[in-house]
Amino acid sequence: MDWFIASEVRFIAAERGSSYLRIGILNGGGDCAGLNAVTRAVVKHAEGYGWEVIGVRYGWDGFLRGDYARLTYDEVKSLIGVGGTILKSSRTNPAKHPNGFQIILENSTKLGLDAVICVGGDDTLGVAAQLFKKGLKVVGVPKTMDNDLLSTDYTFGFDSAVNEAMRAIDNLWTTAESHDRIFVVEVMGREAGWVAAYAGIASGANLIIVPEEPFDIEEVVSFVRNRHERGERATVIVISEGASLKKQSEKVTGESPVDEFGHARLGGIGQFVGEEIERVTKYDTRVVVLGHVIRGGPPTAFDRILSTRFGFAAVDLIREGKFGMMTSLRGTKIIAVSLEESVSKQRLLDSDTLSTMKMVSY
Ligand code: F6P
């Protein structure tokens, strides 16, 4: 890749003709599988139109510091199956930096960018929506393993995380059966239970606990005891990191650092549940926190295809001058939706998934 700082940019628009555009692309927030596949599709499609693509490194932080790279298809063509992001990412919030928004607008002008493709979750796209109002020509692409973005049926990164979690839980099942053990498996997902629900259903978990429905620890313990008493001595419980107790007075996790968007680092609820089960029942119990293991690694075929389609669609939105919009999957179609509306609230588990989750519980 060809790294440079804004002051070194040569303005070549005049040489290239009126259809030439220089577009930026950045990745913000937690990484997930499929980010590189989006970059690859964007560069391919943009080059097809004779445009130039500039990668802004480390999300909004790269825009503030002036950290960019010129991208060519030759450099990104082999990345469809590579996890993580070659563009790097950060949880930088320009609102928390003096004149942050102004600096980004100025740097975008200095770079000669005609538009910017922002690939991120609600935080990154929320910043993009604000910058759009301030005059930056942005297009959003929804990414997050949490699958909690409004206005799209799926975000890429989710399917890959679910598949990784499913494989891990499949493995836990065999050891749980061998030792007649209880396994409590904690998965990421913040305040949305999508990963826990899908991974739990797909791996045949006995009980799935999600943030959308606060729980009673006594009920969980009884559930395990009932299974045990009817001869089911191995139990797998999948719990989302954001799950909480109905009795708020029971504090289960300690203080944790907060990022620039105000999100606390979650985790610890699985440990609490495991310890309570073992303390009350004396059944042999283990807690497994899958954490970032399911966020890293290569994208599934579904995510590679969704990322590729999103990347192509984002470039076409720029071509059509549809700024302030986000690519979205609706059924089998890719459509454009309002960026502002998409970040207006979080998408939590729907009633269909919640009821499937309960029906599989046994
Ligand atoms: O938003 C994606 C996510 O993986 C959440 O599920 C999780 O709570 C958080 O990011 C973890 O963030 P970090 O990578 O900063 O630890």
Question: What radius of gyration results from the CA coordinates?
Answer: 22 Å
Number of strands: 12
Low-confidence stretches: 6-11
Instruction: Give the helix/strand class.
Output: alpha/beta
Q: Can you tell me the number of structural domains?
A: 2
Question: Can you describe what's shown?
Answer:
The protein has 362 residues and is an alpha/beta fold. The protein folds into two domains: 2-156 and 299-342, 3-Layer(aba) Sandwich (Rossmann fold); 159-294, Rossmann fold. Helix content is 39%, strand content 17%. The protein contains 13 helices and twelve strands. The protein has helices spanning 13-16, 35-48, 59-65, 73-76, 100-111, 122-133, 158-179, 194-202, 217-229, 269-281, 301-319, 339-342, 351-359, and strands at 2-4, 22-27, 52-56, 68-71, 115-120, 138-142, 182-187, 207-209, 235-240, 285-289, 325-330, 333-338. The strands form two sheets. The chain has an eight-stranded mixed β-sheet with strand order 1-4-3-2-5-6-11-12, sandwiched between helices. Helix 7 (158-179) packs across helix 8 (194-202) and helix 8 runs parallel beside helix 13. The radius of gyration is 22 Å and the shape is elongated. The N and C termini lie far apart (53 Å). The model is unreliable at 6-11 (pLDDT under 50). The chain binds 6-O-phosphono-beta-D-fructofuranose. 6-O-phosphono-beta-D-fructofuranose is lined by residues 30, 121, 144-146, 188-190, 241, 265-266, 295.
